[in-house]
Write a structure and sequence with these properties.
Layout lengths: L1 H13 L3 H38 L14 H19 L8 H17 L2 H5 L11 H13 L4
Length: about 150
């Protein structure tokens, strides 16, 4: 065992130290960069959730203030939502990007097709009409699930 230790100490006495110092510095900077990115992502997720909540106040997560002209209301906020969704896209992992885009397209389609009469129809037992408020909740939740 002492022979191995002598070999290792002999190696370090003859090898220049600058490559090891350089490696240590690179690893240190990589760790700092990773911590910075992690903190930035956490802040971006918090800001994204807060922004969505402020744009859709009264509609999401609970529809406490569902407006009379929902189609006009959602259409007026569609540009702001698009700005938020596109701005957050850089924080989405590459493998999740297509699902994120699909969830956003589903939300856009819903906002363009929704009408007030779809929200006020009371479904009968034989004719089941999906609740637009539940669909809206699901669509927004699908977008926000990418911001974890």
């Amino acid at each position: 065992m002492e022979e191995y230790l002598n070999q290792i100490s002999g190696y370090f006495s003859q090898v220049p130290m600058w490559p090891l110092v350089l490696l240590f510095l690179v690893l240190t900077f990589a760790r700092i960069y990773e911590l910075f990115n992690r903190k930035s992502r956490v802040n971006a997720v918090k800001d994204f959730h807060a922004s969505i909540d402020s744009v859709l106040v009264g509609l999401y997560p609970e529809p406490t203030n569902w407006p009379k002209n929902i189609d006009v209301y959602l259409s007026a906020r569609l540009d702001v939502m698009e700005e938020l969704v596109v701005g957050f896209k850089s924080n989405i992992r590459q493998q999740d990007l297509s699902a994120y885009n699909k969830d956003w397209e589903n939300y856009q389609r819903f906002c363009q097709e929704i009408r007030d009469d779809q929200c006020t129809v009371v479904p009968s037992d034989s004719d089941h009409v999906p609740d637009s408020k539940k669909i809206f909740y699901t669509l927004v939740s699908n977008i926000l699930r990418h911001a974890r």
